[in-house]
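Retry 2 of 3 after timeout on previous attempt. Resubmitting structure tokens to design endpoint.
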């Protein structure tokens, strides 16, 4: 009953935060932004680091995240996405996972004055005091564990602190929103099989956050029912504003709030804008054919297709679609705060994973202060902004760590 009351109060407060105020003094907005520990829960930069030998100290060169942009935007902690393309790396998912993990450690080792590995909420705060970027990792897609709880535990030992149960491909133990109804795609009628529920509970026991971005609706509800700890959506948006299967319904947002979790808003234009999503959908057949032709050409030449090759090809099509206005991102943050409460929303950019297709004026972490200024203009308080920028995620991490200690001690 107390939890329900808290949710109702939070929702009521967030409703009052939607009235647009007079423009905020830029210096005030900057000071509030710089007083926060800003946490982003999803960037696909490890693909560049591993495949292209990209150094975070280098200029962006078409990418979206580096040390300079992080410093300009006061980005305090980044969860680097450990994503294995399931077709390119079929049958050696674990090797690719380990190589991507290693790329993050290598970056930290090469730049100890700029970045340090972090594994707990306290570590993030320590890195912030040290004026360094806290580097964390989240696995994007349960196919990386190859149906092995032992591998899941190994990844935790190596520093992985969340796992998205599925990517866009369904597994034999969890359903994805990316292939609903597709011929040949596995589908479990309960959302999670008994093994899938074991995975969730083992993540709880380890202290690894359960990420429900990408999963099908039935898997979302099964994960919510199974998890003993708060869940996260590391990079999702609001389905009420854009009816994309990857986005979350208002009912789901209420459930995440009741669970104590947090929804980290994705910046990808296709999840924010219905018009952009429709334009991208209209290109889909042409893009698929171009990818097939590209793969066939490489096969004839005896070359290995890399993730970056495919992303550049896809970006050439995505760049034909106009980017939506920046205000749409704030609309999604605003909606989630209104429905779930301001304690249950955060930032999950998907930088370096969406072909550059983010709203106008949001090209890198250097632009993050614009989010704070926009929230203040909509009536959010300084404390609300600090929660959205990173405080909510820190709270969830601490709750997950607490549940882990309790489970391991047998409480």
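Retry 2 succeeded. Sequence:
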């Amino acid at each position: 009953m107390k939890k329900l009351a808290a949710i109702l109060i939070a929702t009521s407060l967030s409703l009052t935060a939607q009235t647009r105020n007079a423009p905020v003094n830029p210096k005030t907005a900057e000071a509030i932004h710089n007083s926060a520990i800003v946490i982003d829960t999803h960037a696909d930069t490890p693909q560049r680091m591993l495949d292209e030998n990209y150094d975070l100290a280098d200029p962006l060169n078409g990418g979206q995240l580096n040390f300079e942009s992080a410093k300009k935007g006061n980005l305090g902690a980044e969860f680097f996405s450990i994503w294995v393309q399931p077709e390119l790396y079929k049958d050696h998912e674990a090797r690719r996972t380990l190589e991507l993990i290693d790329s993050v450690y290598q970056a930290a080792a090469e730049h100890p004055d700029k970045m340090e590995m972090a594994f707990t909420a306290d570590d993030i705060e320590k890195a912030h005091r040290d004026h360094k970027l806290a580097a964390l990792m989240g696995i994007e897609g349960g196919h990386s564990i190859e149906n092995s709880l032992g591998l899941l535990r190994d990844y935790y030992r190596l520093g992985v602190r969340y796992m998205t149960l599925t990517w866009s491909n369904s597994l034999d133990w969890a359903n994805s929103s990316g292939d609903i109804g597709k011929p040949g795609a596995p589908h479990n009628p309960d959302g999670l099989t008994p093994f899938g529920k074991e995975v969730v509970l083992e993540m709880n026991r380890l202290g690894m956050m359960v990420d429900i971005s990408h999963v099908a609706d039935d898997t979302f509800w099964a994960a919510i029912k199974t998890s003993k700890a708060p869940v996260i959506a590391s990079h999702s948006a609001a389905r009420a504003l854009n009816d994309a299967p990857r986005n979350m319904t208002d009912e789901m947002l209420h459930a995440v709030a009741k669970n104590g979790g947090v929804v980290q808003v994705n910046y990808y234009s296709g999840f924010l804008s219905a018009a952009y999503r429709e334009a991208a959908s209209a290109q889909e057949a042409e893009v698929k054919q171009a990818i097939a032709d590209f793969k066939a050409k490489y096969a004839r030449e005896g070359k290995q297709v890399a993730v970056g090759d495919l992303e550049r090809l896809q970006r050439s099509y995505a760049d034909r679609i106009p980017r939506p206005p920046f205000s749409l991102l704030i609309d999604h943050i605003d909606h989630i705060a209104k429905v779930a409460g301001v304690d249950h929303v955060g930032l999950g950019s998907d930088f370096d994973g969406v072909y550059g297709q983010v709203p106008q004026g949001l090209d890198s972490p250097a632009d993050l202060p614009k989010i704070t200024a926009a929230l203040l203009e909509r009536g959010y308080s300084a404390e609300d902004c600090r929660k959205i920028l990173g405080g909510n995620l820190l709270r969830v991490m601490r709750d997950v760590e607490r549940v882990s200690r309790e489970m391991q001690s047998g409480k």
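Attempt log closed. Residues 275-323 form one domain.
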